[in-house]
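Example record for the data management plan.
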Amino acid sequence: MKKLMALLMAVIAAGTLTWAAETPTPASVDLQGTLGCGHCTFHKTSSCAAALKVADGKIYVIDNATPAVMAAREDAAPAKVSGTVTEKNGILHIQATKQEMVK
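Corresponding structural encoding:
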């Protein structure tokens, strides 16, 4: 019985390691576009949020926008944002690691 349990545990551990190795980690991307309000300008969010519209027309909600980016969204300012992209409920989001205004 002990041998059977040990074998079962080994199979479960091997399967878990294989599954973990197959899970891709999101890659960091660099986006450049025009800021706007996710609610008022782009109609993607239920409340005001910073969002970036890129050249191909895609809109990314900036999940952790800085106060400067939040203020600039009202002026349709150009910006660069780097970070990891995810999709939540059909809306693209970027968890920004770098945010800067383009002059």
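Summary line stored alongside the record: The mean pLDDT is 87.
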